[in-house]
Amino acid sequence: MTATQKRIIINRIALGFSTLSAIIALAFLFWILGVLVMKGVDSLSWSIFMFEGSPPGYAESGLKHALVGQLILVGLATLIGVPLGIMAGTYLSEYGKNSKLAHTIRDISDIMMSAPSIVIGAFVYAVVVMPMGHFSAWAGAIALAIIMIPIILRTTDDMLQLVPGTLREAAFALGAPKYKVIMDVVYRGAKAGILTGVLLGIARVGGETAPLLFTSFNDNFFTTDLNEAMPSLTVTMFNYAISPYDDWQQLGWAAAFILSMFILGLNIVGRLILLAGKRK
Amino acid sequence: MASIIDIKDECSLHVRNFSFTYKGATTPSLKKVTMPIAKHSVTALIGPSGCGKTTLLRSFNRMHDLYPGNKYEGEIEFEGRNILDPKEDLIHLRTKIGMIFQKPTAFPMSIFDNVAYGMRLQGIKNKTELEGRVEKALQDAAIWKEVKDRLKHDANGLSGGQQQRLCIARAIAVEPEVLLFDEPTSALDPISTQGIEKLVIELKERVSIIIVTHNMQQAARVSDYTGFMYLGDLIELGHTEELFVTPKEKLTQEYITGKFG
Ligand SMILES: Nc1ncnc2c1ncn2[C@@H]1O[C@H](COP(=O)(O)OP(=O)(O)O)[C@@H](O)[C@H]1O
Ligand SMILES: [Mg+2]
């Protein structure tokens, strides 16, 4: 056997293995999605959106409390996390650049991105929940925002750096002050990328359970009071799924389905925006 | 040893004993350059790559200030003051001395907004005034006919040559005194290059132009004065025909006859 033949065979084996691995990974993904859709769609009904949680056995039982709570928690986290993340990313790309401080912030942010989210929950418990004396939507949203910030910071930093330096120079050359260059030219050039980062950041925190367990906590009642404990889809799902009651488990499946579709949707939209931006 | 022509006509810029050192560099990239820039004419800068043409050009609008740590020495006189003065108002300076880059730099916005950008920075908000001046600038940049029906379209949809003319329109819309061109045609096809060269010659009625080019034919075609640079020195500055036909310096002679480059 010549060296070339040997190389071709090894190449084929390697290709075979990697294709097989990809198929296995995808098979699991579709299996999960399949089960979720079957069980979830089965459990969906209008009453889910009309009623709040009830003790097991009640017909008028739904997820309204958790859906609204989830939207409030994620919305509030977005309001806190997106401006901070974008501003920090702007600092890194446009002001800090290659300075020591900027590199330190990037490193810390990367570490934060891989920190277990329950640790962030514990941190917020210590600095927000304990001083306040009770669980609250604020605490939950802050925990989610802390998880969101490094993601948005990093994408903003990366996307702004992709904007060619000559474009900035051209704006300066027309007599633009720095903040104008950033607002008018740099942000515009990186619009699609930043938006994608924001959507992926929201998608990431949308599925978090652990940081909410002891920050916003959870209960079965509808509320919009940010100073009170607030139910979320994820924690509700967790509670219902491990319960021994059939109807609660059904609601748990419905919650899982709705949440997954929400996150899948955000991911797809985020990637489509990025693709459309690249194609231009 | 350098041979610098004494320009009798009015000058818009005077470079005197100007040295420039990049951050961290041990030797200056420009060494005691002295050079008058005639008003309402085209001055070309030629010389082998790395000789300091871009560095000199970017000193006129203090572009180097965007990156900290660079050092200017000497004087560049413009409108009666030394623009290298640390107190110089750079925003004002850059509205007076505009720049066109090697690659077109259309902003990610509409054609109209691109041309209006500099005027809006100056606080011009009146819609009719903006529209009038945008049209005038586009006409002066010889691109009005091609874009007048799609002013609201994204400027990045234009061809390279069109984008470069758009950038020229954007620069002249704020009515600068001086325009700096850094190899403006090196990324363009021959037809677009011809268009830009024609434009440069037309524009000198109103602005003083300094153009860096690696192409000697281009310098000969468009410029009134040519400066030959070598290793950070201005070796010779003269009337363009004279410099190309009867150069005074041996180095210039060798460069234009292609002995090195
Ligand atoms: N940003 C920079 N930092 C340090 N040195 C530089 C920088 N830009 C250019 N130089 C150096 O300055 C010299 C002149 O460069 P440049 O003005 O770009 O030449 P040209 O435009 O004539 O090709 C070269 O030796 C180059 O290496
Ligand atoms: Mg150059």
How do you describe this structure in short?
The complex is a heterodimer of chains A (280) and B (261). Chain A is an all-alpha fold and 280 residues long.
Overall description:
The complex is a heterodimer of chains A (280) and B (261). Chain A has eleven helices and no strands. Chain A is globular, with a radius of gyration of 23 Å. Chain A folds into two domains: 3-43; 49-279, MetI-like (MetI-like fold, Orthogonal Bundle), CATH 1.10.3720.10. The mean pLDDT of chain A is 94. Chain A is mainly alpha-helical and 280 residues long. Chain B is α/β, with parallel strands linked by helices and 261 residues long. Chain B has a single domain (3-256), classed as P-loop containing nucleotide triphosphate hydrolases (Rossmann fold, 3-Layer(aba) Sandwich), CATH 3.40.50. Helix content of chain B is 35%, strand content 25%. Chain B has ten helices and eleven strands. In chain B, the strands form two sheets. A seven-stranded mixed β-sheet of chain B has the order 1-11-10-4-9-8-7, sandwiched between helices. A four-stranded antiparallel β-sheet of chain B has the order 3-2-5-6, with helices on one face. In chain B, β10 (225-230) and β11 (233-239) form a beta hairpin. In chain B, α3 crosses α4 and α3 packs parallel to α6. Chain B is globular, with a radius of gyration of 18 Å. The A-B interface holds A 164, 166-177, 180, 184-185, 188-189, 191, 280 and B 61, 63, 66, 91-95, 98-99, 101-103, 105, 107-109, 117-118, 121-122, 154, 156, 167, 170-171, 174. The structure holds adenosine-5'-diphosphate and magnesium ion.
Quick tags:
heterodimer, A: 280 residues, mainly alpha, MetI-like fold, 2 domains, 0% strand, B: 261 residues, alpha/beta, Rossmann fold, 7-stranded mixed beta sheet, 4-stranded antiparallel beta sheet, 10 helices, binds adenosine-5'-diphosphate, binds magnesium ion
